[in-house]
Write a structure and sequence with these properties.
The chain is built from six helices and four strands. It is an alpha+beta fold.
Length: about 140
């Protein structure tokens, strides 16, 4: 399977859902283990962010955390967090994710959490912007394929 490659960022970049309390909290927790000044975290919900990373769609980012490394290689889900942790020498321990069985288990659990993230912790925006997003998402889910 070919790996998605996009425009290389100035710094390795985590793309997270800034409208999700769960995602925002987990990104902040992850930041405690990452080297300051060696990466950036961006909410893909902010205007213009996804335009900087051609090939990464809004639908993709709604399904999973994304990490874009310095060469523009894109990782999603648990692997995004693992690759981000790899920015630190000790963080390379997270590469245990690639042990057969562990990856499959974590990759099976991740989409369940991602789909239910707003139910787990709620939204961060109360200014109506989220309401527009949620109505569009509901309409998309209820429309026939």
């Amino acid at each position: 399977m070919a790996r998605l490659v996009t425009t290389p960022p100035a710094l390795p970049t985590l793309l997270y859902d800034g409208h999700c309390r769960f995602c925002t909290t987990q990104t902040q927790r992850l930041a405690r283990f990452l080297p300051a000044g060696k990466y950036q975290s961006l909410s893909f919900q902010d205007e213009g962010v996804l335009a900087r990373f051609p090939g990464i769609t809004y639908e993709d980012t709604m399904r999973a955390l994304h990490y874009v490394d310095a060469r523009g290689r894109v990782y999603a889900g648990v692997e995004a967090g693992v690759r981000a942790l790899g920015l630190r020498l000790l963080g390379k321990l997270a590469y245990g994710y690639y042990i057969p069985g562990i990856r499959q288990l974590l990759d099976a659990i991740y989409p369940i959490i991602a789909r239910n993230r707003y139910k787990l912790a709620g939204r961060t925006c109360d200014d109506g912007a989220c309401a527009v997003h949620f109505e569009a998402t509901r309409a998309k889910r209820s429309s026939p394929p």
